[in-house]
Design brief:
Blueprint: E1 3-8, H1 16-22, E2 24-30, H2 33-41, E3 47-52, E4 58-65, E5 70-71, E6 80-95, H3 96-101, H4 109-112, E7 118-121, H5 123-133
Parallel strand pairs: 1-3
Antiparallel strand pairs: 1-7, 2-6, 3-4, 4-6, 5-6
């Protein structure tokens, strides 16, 4: 099982509260080539941190991949998607400033490549995140 992080803009797009309400969703709208490559590597059962970008800049919840990634033919632009189901919403979100301060996260794509919308989460980063969220 691998861990990933996906970004959402809760004011414009989709939020953790929407995922709580819906229970599951097709995670789509990803057009960046690097992000698409990450989606293509996802497997059923992988866990995904949901990150609210823009104003909140925090990890706010956890979801699980429950479909193989697929090309989103409904999108006129090159796009891939996967299905996510809700796992949990964190009582206290983990803010980007705390992540940036942690030496364990220095190489994390969230810190290094701010605009990337889908990224892998290495084991040492995942362990550090979990130690802050539980």
């Amino acid at each position: 099982m691998n861990y990933w992080l996906v970004k959402a803009d809760p004011d414009e797009d989709y939020s953790i509260d929407d995922l709580v309400r819906d229970g599951e969703t097709v995670w789509d709208g990803v057009h960046n080539n690097a992000a698409i490559l990450h989606i293509q590597k996802m497997k059923v059962g992988d866990l995904v941190y949901v990150y609210h970008s823009q104003k909140q800049k925090s990890i706010v919840g956890l979801a699980e991949v429950f479909s193989e990634p697929f090309e989103n033919t409904a999108d006129p632009r090159r796009s891939w998607a996967m299905k996510l189901k809700f796992v949990k919403k964190y009582d206290t979100p983990l803010h980007l400033s705390a992540i940036k301060e942690a030496p364990e996260c220095a190489d994390f794509a969230l810190v290094r490549i701010g605009r990337l919308s889908v990224m892998p989460v290495e084991a040492k980063v995942q362990q550090w995140i979990e130690s802050r969220l539980t």
